[in-house]
């Protein structure tokens, strides 16, 4: 392995670095999907297997140093918008994940992704990315009790008690670690905040109101246990094909597709992983792997898998080949057996990570052409409606519709593709089903 300015040793070290940058998902993803009524231990097993198999496939088949794992934003949409907001069962939501993966796979195999890519205006993509970031941050603040409902002002800051002060400590610590470029900063922040939460309910405060009646935030449940396959193959394939679920399937597809494309483009440009046509290296194969990860996610019992921008951490360490992704994937596997230990992590310890993930996702907002109001207004609506309606789907739909109306009304019909009109029609239909 000596090509492309890399060696086996460099690739292995890069794989370890990438794993440290992405391993927080092992805890955070089950924590979020628990809000959908799914058992923590089983989702953890599904998360680990999706991360491992998909990343190894990315390395072996697509030969790219990119880790694949259940996506942040998609998991929040799954738990809070689809299951809690729409009242859909998690089994049906898993079916929607599966079908979105099947569609994604067809689009990737037949290269139809270019048609879809051109259908969605780039300015709207920036707004949606930022909106998802705000949504994830809001969820983190809510989970920590730092933001609460208020009958007068709708939302307000929660009381500065044992729980919120633990969160503030965790957010400050994790922010400093991230800002200083410490490897594994997010997982270190989760671990230290978990330790800091141990006194809550024991030495001070009471967590009963936010922890299902338990006074303590952290309760030791053991070290190891066999993998839990409770949610495996429990998806509802028929229920997820009902007309009312089509917008959900599309939202999963949209988020997954453009997360993947933006990751490939960003990482490839930064690392010089570009083919002779100026396109990201092996993009078709990479998108096929990403689609397979989403199909696998629906079958195993987690939200859709997607390529992780944190893979850039390993690339900065010199990773250029698929071995980087293979090493990172293999490192996930042992954690299947540590669900009792990892389940002690309270939501207040993962909340700082959710807030910071929101920060990471706000970068595309800088690319919105704020000086052109026909671009800025639809992008802004998508940006703010996602968190304010507590729904990624609503933000996407109203972003699309406002873009179409404004462009057609200002003599810029050429900026509205036929594909977007089809999407608009489906969005309008979704209001009445």
Structural description of this entry:
The chain is mostly helical. The protein has one domain (8-430). The protein is 61% helix and 3% strand. It has 18 helices and four strands. It has helices at 8-22, 25-33, 40-62, 74-86, 90-109, 113-119, 122-143, 162-179, 185-197, 246-271, 283-300, 311-316, 322-332, 339-342, 347-360, 373-388, 392-409, 418-430; strands at 68-70, 147-150, 154-157, 305-307. Strand 2 (147-150) and strand 3 (154-157) form a beta hairpin. The radius of gyration is 21 Å and the shape is globular.
Can I get a quick summary?
The chain has 433 residues and is mostly helical. The chain is built from 18 helices and four strands. The chain has a two-stranded antiparallel ribbon with strand order 1-4.
Task: List the SSEs and their pairings.
Layout: H1 8-22, H2 25-33, H3 40-62, E1 68-70, H4 74-86, H5 90-109, H6 113-119, H7 122-143, E2 147-150, E3 154-157, H8 162-179, H9 185-197, H10 246-271, H11 283-300, E4 305-307, H12 311-316, H13 322-332, H14 339-342, H15 347-360, H16 373-388, H17 392-409, H18 418-430
Defining traits:
single chain; 433 residues; mainly alpha; 4 strands
Encode the helix/strand succession as letters.
HHHEHHHHEEHHHHEHHHHHHH
Number of helices: 18
Approximate shape: globular
Binned strand content: under 5%
Spans where pLDDT lies below 50 across 5 or more residues: none
- Total domain count: 1
Quick check: average pLDDT?
Answer: 86
Percentage of helical residues? 55-70%
How many runs of DSSP E, i.e. beta strands?
4
Largest sheet: 2 strands, antiparallel
Kindly provide the radius of gyration, computed on alpha-carbon positions and rounded to a whole number of angstroms. 21 Å
């Amino acid at each position: 392995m000596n090509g492309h300015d890399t060696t086996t040793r460099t690739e292995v070290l890069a794989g370890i670095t990438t794993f440290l940058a992405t391993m927080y998902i092992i805890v955070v993803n089950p924590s979020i999907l628990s809000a959908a009524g799914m058992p923590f231990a089983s989702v953890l097993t599904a998360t680990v297997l999706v991360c491992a198999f998909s990343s190894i496939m990315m390395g072996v088949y697509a030969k790219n140093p990119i880790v694949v794992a259940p996506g942040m934003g998609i998991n929040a949409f799954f738990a809070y918008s689809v299951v809690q907001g729409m009242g859909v069962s998690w089994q049906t939501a898993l079916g929607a994940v599966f079908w979105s993966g099947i569609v994604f796979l067809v689009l990737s195999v037949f290269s139809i992704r270019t048609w879809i890519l051109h259908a969605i205006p780039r300015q709207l993509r920036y707004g949606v990315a930022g909106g998802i970031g705000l949504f994830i941050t809001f969820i983190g603040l809510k989970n920590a009790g730092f933001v609460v409902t208020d009958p007068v002002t709708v939302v307000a800051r929660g009381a500065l008690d044992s729980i919120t002060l633990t969160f503030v400590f965790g957010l400050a610590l994790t922010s400093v670690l991230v800002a200083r470029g410490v490897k594994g900063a997010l997982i270190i922040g989760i671990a230290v905040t978990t330790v800091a939460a141990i006194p809550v309910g024991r030495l001070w405060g009471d967590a009963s109101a936010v922890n299902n009646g338990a006074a303590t935030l952290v309760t030791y449940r053991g070290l190891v246990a066999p993998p839990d396959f409770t949610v495996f193959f429990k998806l509802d394939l028929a229920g997820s094909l009902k007309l009312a679920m089509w917008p959900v399937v599309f939202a999963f597809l949209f988020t997954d597709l453009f997360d993947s494309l933006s990751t490939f483009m960003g990482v490839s440009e930064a690392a010089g992983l570009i083919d002779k046509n100026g396109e990201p290296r092996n993009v078709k194969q990479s998108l096929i792997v990403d689609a397979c990860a989403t199909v696998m996610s629906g079958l195993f019992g987690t939200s859709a898998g997607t390529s992780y921008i944190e893979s850039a951490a390993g690339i900065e360490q010199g990773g250029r080949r698929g071995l980087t992704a293979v090493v990172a994937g293999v490192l996930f596997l042992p954690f299947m057996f540590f669900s009792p230990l990892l389940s002690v992590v309270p939501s207040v310890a993962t909340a700082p990570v959710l807030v910071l993930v929101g920060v990471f996702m706000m970068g595309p907002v800088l690319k919105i052409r704020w000086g052109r109001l026909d671009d800025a207004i639809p992008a802004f609506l998508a940006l703010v409606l996602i968190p304010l309606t507590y729904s990624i789907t609503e933000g996407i739909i109203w972003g699309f519709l406002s873009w179409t109306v404004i462009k057609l009304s200002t003599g810029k019909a050429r900026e509205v593709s036929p594909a977007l009109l089809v999407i608009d029609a489906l969005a309008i239909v979704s209001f009445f089903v």
